[in-house]
Design goal:
Length: 401
């Protein structure tokens, strides 16, 4: 079986590599020549534990080849980004372009699968596009949607072991897509239709966003009420049917802070909680900025001098080096608009250099600061010995234990 992946990004590349490692012949296609060259050298352009070694071995064995152009295959996977436009409307133009790029290669019996997070109805729309240009393929090819659900940092394990939801535009399509995923997924493969599968993905990430918004709202209430939110949540979670997530300095990454808009833009009247959760999580980031500025003012008033400040963490979540859509990075950017860099120490233990921020080791940053602001709960920060002479702002629960 020959498989063509369109898109070699954070999901496309690991999925191409894992399926190649199970013996499939895989062509990985990307419009970026650097990515194609990097992969063909057996190297990777993203950071993901275990992916580098596996890529080298499947490129050496010949099971994975990267290319700028799709090639004749049996299964085609669309794994390209679906960003949103300025008004939070999803932009499916990359999915469309990927589909157009393979339309002329499709032949009877082939399977076309979209993995990109997509608004409801995208798979049907792409089916219409394919059949409008190739009407003779009607009922002759399989078209399905199968969302990815892997957690950055644990992708290789989860790609094989997570359950998958697979929805075809008809039963025959679902069967064909299931047959493909059986080749490398050990988790259960759950069948449904394409629209439900699309909505499952949006629902999973919206559900997490809503739950985090609840925790973030609690943290703001507790701050005003003089209650330690971390203790509160730990105690509430002792209830057998309560399981509250943790507050933070906002919700980042490419998925949870984006996917809910795919629902709210299509169902603005009906998606009230989902929209509110987005609003609360975005507001939490600005609230952290305000809290920090207030602490700085208070310090100045009490001590008659400007404090030095340590900003701890830039990544979008703990223990990764990914700064994409990171609320911590946004907070640092906003604070730097008002503070002179001389007084600020920025620490991110997972990266060594950054083109915009001057980084300091987290030990130095902590040692030199009057005010320490914990933005991301990286494991390194847990080891810091707390000094009594500092103002500590903990937005992510580093000090909770
Ligand atoms: N966060 C909190 N409090 C928490 C948990 C997370 O504030 O208790 C924040 C994180 O700090 C981060 C953001 O949420 O800023 C998102 O992090 P995450 O670990 O919740 O999720 P991602 O973006 O790394 O991956 C999610 C996962 N989806 C779900 O857990 C429902 C993953 O399984 C998906 O595959 C991925 O989105 C995706 O690609 O859609």
């Amino acid at each position: 079986m020959k498989v063509c992946f369109i898109g070699l990004g954070y999901i496309g590349l690991p999925t191409a590599v894992v399926s190649a490692s199970k013996g499939l012949t895989v062509i990985g296609v990307d419009i970026n020549e650097d990515i194609v060259n990097t992969v063909n050298e057996g190297k990777i352009h993203i950071v993901e534990p275990g992916l580098g070694e596996l890529t080298r071995s499947v490129v050496e064995s010949g099971n994975l080849t990267a290319s700028l152009k799709p090639e004749l295959s049996d299964v085609y996977l669309v794994v390209v980004p679906t960003p949103f436009k300025g008004n939070h409307e999803p932009d499916i133009s990359y999915v469309e372009a990927a589909t157009v790029s393979i339309i002329n290669l499709l032949k009877e019996g082939d399977t076309y699968i979209i993995e990109s997070t997509s608004p409801i109805g995208t798979t049907e729309k792409m089916a219409e596009l394919i059949f409008s240009l190739r009407p003779e393929l009607h009922n002759k090819i399989n078209i399905a949607y199968c969302p990815e659900r892997v957690l950055p940092g644990n992708v290789i394990f989860e790609l094989e072991n997570n359950d998958r939801v697979i929805g075809g535009i008809d039963d025959k399509s679902t069967d064909a897509a299931i047959e493909f995923y059986t080749k490398f997924v050990r988790g259960k493969l759950h069948r449904t239709n394409a629209r439900t599968a699309e909505m499952v993905k949006l629902t999973e990430n919206s559900s997490r966003d809503v739950q985090i918004a609840f925790a973030n709202e609690l943290s703001i209430i507790c701050n005003k009420a003089g209650i330690n939110v971390w203790e509160l949540i730990e105690l509430a979670n002792k209830h057998p049917r309560v399981n509250i997530l943790w507050p933070g300095c906002g919700v980042g990454g490419h998925c949870i802070a984006v996917d809910p808009y795919f629902i709210t833009s299509d169902f603005p009247e009906e998606s009230k909680i989902i929209a509110k959760a987005r609003e609360i999580n975005n507001y939490k980031t600005l609230w952290c900025v305000e809290q920090t500025k207030n602490a700085i003012l208070k310090y100045e008033l009490e001590n008659g001098r400007k404090p030095s400040i340590a900003l701890m963490g830039l990544a979008f979540k703990p223990n990764i080096d990914d700064l994409r859509e990171s609320p911590a990075k946004y907070i640092v950017e906003l604070l730097l608009q008002e503070l002179t860099e001389r007084d600020v120490f920025i620490a991110e233990p997972n990266i060594s250099t950054h083109n915009r921020f001057k980084l300091t080791s987290y030990e130095e940053a902590y040692k030199n600061a009057d005010i320490v602001v914990f933005l991301v709960a990286h494991k390194e920060f847990n080891a810091i010995k707390q000094a009594n002479d500092k103002v500590l702002l903990d937005f992510c629960g580093v000090l909770k234990n």
